[in-house]
Specification:
Layout lengths: L1 H9 L20 E7 L4 E7 L5 E6 L5 H13 L3 E6 L5 E3 L5 E3 L2 E2 L10 E4 L5 H6 L2 H12 L3 E5 L2 H7 L8 E2 L6 H5 L3 E2 L4 E4 L2 E4 L5 H13 L1 H8 L29 E6 L5 H13 L3 E6 L5 E3 L5 E3 L2 E2 H4 L6 E4 L3 H8 L2 H12 L4 E3 L3 H6 L10
Parallel strand pairs: 3-4, 3-8, 4-7, 8-9, 9-13, 10-11, 14-15, 14-19, 15-18, 19-20
Antiparallel strand pairs: 1-2, 5-6, 6-17, 12-13, 16-17
Length: about 375
Amino acid sequence: MASSSLCHRYFNKITVTPFFNTKKLHHYSPRRISLRVNRRSFSISATMSSSTKKVLIPVAHGTEPFEAVVMIDVLRRGGADVTVASVENQVGVDACHGIKMVADTLLSDITDSVFDLIMLPGGLPGGETLKNCKPLEKMVKKQDTDGRLNAAICCAPALAFGTWGLLEGKKATCYPVFMEKLAACATAVESRVEIDGKIVTSRGPGTTMEFSVTLVEQLLGKEKAVEVSGPLVMRPNPGDEYTITELNQVSWSFEGTPQILVPIADGSEEMEAVAIIDVLKRAKANVVVAALGNSLEVVASRKVKLVADVLLDEAEKNSYDLIVLPGGLGGAEAFASSEKLVNMLKKQAESNKPYGAICASPALVFEPHGLLKVRE
């Protein structure tokens, strides 16, 4: 109230001109906004909290999208300021399995920046591109010399870190088919996640969440890692066997290649969306990613930018063997309010075709529209 009164007393009209580029404001998140008011000046500034940890995740054409997106998502959940940088000459990246994502910036624009952690996703040919990126190699080597964290998963430990000489005398792990190459430059171990000094490595897509939570702990402490891992509903013993219980069993059948629709919207949970798309495409299904709204580009719940194949208006014209909804509160709410999508789901149910959902979507989309009722 004091600041408000002061403003009213000394200014009849206030015009605030940001000194920063507002289009790049997300690079400052999380941020502290400071307000300075006196007789002659009024200004607003955005400054990074001194305790905020900065993380760089480079991506390229052919990067494994599930690994990249989980890393981004989990580290942002931990409160880290994550920069996704394209090593290509454009921010748009065609990742593996036809998944498209948009980086925050070009690596070439931030080579002088300092990060608390640099973490490399895998995937081919993305891993080779990262290995051959000289500016990235220089940044990672300086990171190592300065005693800051470096991390890599899948093929990246062997292809990048090994080639750059970072693993000499270190224990490390990687994707199984690269273990022989890794053994030539490190002590290769089959751990799901391996920590040796300031180097953290992991095996592949199935270990990415553990890898990312481990890095939250390395950067921000055990308490923060526990806080982050809880809502992720992680399995307590990820390497153990697991079972699936199917109730009201039905016969799933289709002709030829299964046609699958995965809708996404602003606020969709990016990890869930990308995992669904990635795994189903690995199974050789034809997956159509459809965006609600008027733009193919969607800003997901942790600000990862994904690019759909088509708009839902176009996807609505076809029929599908399966429709699967990711979660994320904002995305689920958008799904629930989409008459087109709800009608498609109801037709799917009437045709005895399967549909699925995860996280918030069963409760916010299926239940209110009667899509969880047992059919007689």
